[in-house]
Amino acid sequence: MTALAYDVALAPEPADRRLPAATPAGDEAWALLEASGALAMWVDVQGRILDATETTADLLVYPLDYLRRASLLDLVALESRERVAQMLHGCAHDRAARRERVRMAGGIGGPDWIDLRASHHAAADGSTALLLFGYDISDWMESQRELSERAFLDPLTGVGNRAYIRKRIEECASGRAGQGFALALMDLDGFKNVNDSLGHEFGDALLKEVGARLQDTVRTRQSVARLGGDEFVLLLDGMPTEADAVRILERVIHVIRQPFLLGGCHVRITTSIGLAHSAGAPQSESQWLRRADLAMYEAKALGKNRYCVYTPELDRRLDEQFRIEQSMFEAVQNGEFLLHYQPIVWPGTGKICAVEALMRWEHAGKEIRPDIFIPVAEKNGLIKHLGAWALRCACAQLAAWDAQGIHVGHMSVNVSAVQFLHPNFYDSVRAAIQDAGIGADRLVLEITESVLMTDPKAAEQLLLSLRALGIRFAVDDFGTGYSSLSYLRRFPLSALKVDRSFVADMIDSPHARTIVSAVLSLARELGLVAIAEGVETEAQGNLLAAQGCDLVQGWRYARALSPADFESAVLDGKLVMGQGEVFTQRVAS
Ligand code: C2E
Ligand code: CA
Ligand code: CA
Questions:
Q1: 369 C-beta closer than 6 A to ligand 1
Q2: How many Cα atoms are found within 13 Å in the side-chain-facing hemisphere of 72?
Q3: Which domain of life is it from (predicted)?
Q4: Which of 99, 107, 153, 558 has its CA at 20 to 30 Å from residue 511's CA atom?
Q5: What is the mean pLDDT of residues 32-39?
Q6: Does domain 153-310 bear CATH number 3.30.70.270?
């Protein structure tokens, strides 16, 4: 149509028209313009309408006579006037065609938006006429507006989406630096359980309700968004201090804790929130989100159902984790990991019944503690290699001591959850025993309660098949994990290790003493060997012996030693091997 518009010619018309005398025109062309259903008119550089089609009058809902006396600029909305004027001048000046989306003044039912094109025609008398041609694009503009609004909306909950919150953070971070804002990232605790047990439909209903409660709580609809899944973000604007934001978060935590009515039943969930306040150096929008995210993970780690405020310490820790993770891969290759062995002894005689293999990492002349590196290795998956290596190494060590005439009854090896749940675990244990040539009945695997409870069915199968080989299991850190005791009967277990926190407190705290004695009698009743760990003093050792604890382990007797130190302590007579088979005795009885 643009090409057509260029060729259009207008016949000279009656004198009341201000059409330039020599404007080219033709009846057929004019008829074509009428038939196009589009806006078509001649204007001068100032926008005065020289002529218009009847279709145009119909389209704009003005009488044609009125149009012929009006200026185009009066027909367009105020906001578009300047641009239209520029378009006309530009077109007249350089004679190049132009195009603009123009908002119309509207009000009497005409189109809101016109896609307006202007082309230039020089009249014989030297004056200029511009042909305007335009389509009604109101519907298209409306759908565009809806689309852009929807592009910022989370379709499920009706709160903002990720793109929206990013835009808002950018606005806040750049615009009103002095006022202060806070970004809170929240994750629902246990949402997966709701989804898994009640189904996705209820999960969605819950998310909707959470969105609604959040909007009610922070009041300004603009500040709530969902990042995806069960992660919501609150952008709290106008928060001069952290404390202002914290007050709102406390309300949010309370509001989310109230029961949700889903499908006729009350469902309770909690939320963990990370807060980043804008005090301090300005950050990019992704850095704000990252900070809130770090703080949120800290809130989860601290036990959920709480908020946690970002501090640079969190970054420092992440940094350390990152560095540990990076050097860990090389450390495996460089052989920086070692096993040390801590004796497990009879409380009466102090003679050695078994040893526990404990991993050591010496990196750049510094020892990195297992409490630090084991969780990192669990996260990055290296624990599978490290754990398999520890198993092989510990079994081989037991065989080497056998060959030296140092008979250590049992070797205890720690197994982490990630390692235990790996499909290769069974094979790696069997290979370690076979390669070392030791009896399976001399290996004890230490597992925690959480390992058993993550997937009890799979755990039971695995324990049974390993137990069939002759391998035994001890529950490590007993009393700190899962609260149900029924699993003790379900799984084929041989020993309980009383957590060292109870042992540490048992002299001063009657409560700790009660727990220790309860665990000891529980073990007795169930035919399990009781091992107390972290025994540091003679008083603790005596008390445990008096209460009938089978075996003890701790600095009172010996620290974890390198193989060479262990061997020389045995040769020097500082460590004495015991005889007798405490595990078989107990299990057989
Ligand atoms: P754990 O299995 O509870 O190991 C006992 C921890 O208590 C060891 O810490 C040991 O050195 C320490 N300990 C022993 N006697 C005493 C005492 O009298 N007082 C005190 N305060 N502590 C004592 P360590 O070697 O730092 O290991 C920490 C944890 O790292 C272990 O706790 C275990 O969970 C994990 N870990 C160590 N080696 C391995 C391994 O090869 N594989 C896996 N998966 N985890 C390991
Ligand atoms: Ca252990
Ligand atoms: Ca332990």
A1: yes
A2: 34
A3: Bacteria
A4: 558
A5: 90
A6: yes
